[in-house]
Amino acid sequence: MKVNRVILTLLWFLFVINLSEGLFAPLLAIYVTNELAGATLASVGFAVAIYAVVKSVFQLVIAKKLDKWIGERDDFYALVAGSLIGVAYAFGLAVITNVNQFYWLASLSGVGGACLMAAYYSIFARHADHGKEGFEWSLFSVGGLTISAAIGAAIGGVAIEHFGFSPTFVATGLLNAVATMLLLFLYPKLDIKRHA
């Protein structure tokens, strides 16, 4: 079943983003507890909670603003901003040295996730092909979220075992940068004059 260019670009973008984050996500607790001064397993739990709270609050605010503004340029810029924050997060993981820096990075990641997902859902929902919505949202779920994370986790486990965490974080940042560049194919297809 064929999908339109906007949906296809969004699916590939999310696939690369989640694959790259899957490179380290399952093993992040090991890195944090072994490498960051003052970190414990509780620190990992607190960082996840910080990320979730920040993302939840900001995503609702950002989504509401994006819905009010005319056109899809704002959605595009929010998507790019969120993606670039993801790049910074990955590179940040490679250089932080203590748990407080990890908490700040988790907060930053929450803002990035909020920008990215508020805009992503908005654009995806408007461009899903009529009569194919269930299939396209399933592609989002299966390919963009599940399969990509599984591939990333499998590759990441091997990469971390052979190269260590820092090179894997750098690879994640580079893959996120590639994903951000994929968005350049999206911009010409957006509805700049959409009415609020």
From TrEMBL:
Membrane topology label: Multi-pass membrane protein
Subcellular location, principal: membrane
Species of origin: Candidatus Lloydbacteria bacterium RIFCSPHIGHO2_02_FULL_50_13
Name this polypeptide is given: Major facilitator superfamily (MFS) profile domain-containing protein
Subcellular location(s) of the protein: Cell membrane
GO cellular component: plasma membrane
Alphabetic keyword roster: Cell membrane, Membrane, Transmembrane, Transmembrane helix, Transport
Membrane-traversing stretches: 39-63, 75-96, 102-125, 137-160, 166-187
PANTHER family, sorted: MAJOR FACILITATOR SUPERFAMILY MFS_1, RESISTANCE PROTEIN MDTM, PUTATIVE-RELATED-RELATED
GO terms for MF: transmembrane transporter activity
Domain (Major facilitator superfamily (MFS) profile): residue spans on this chain: 6-196
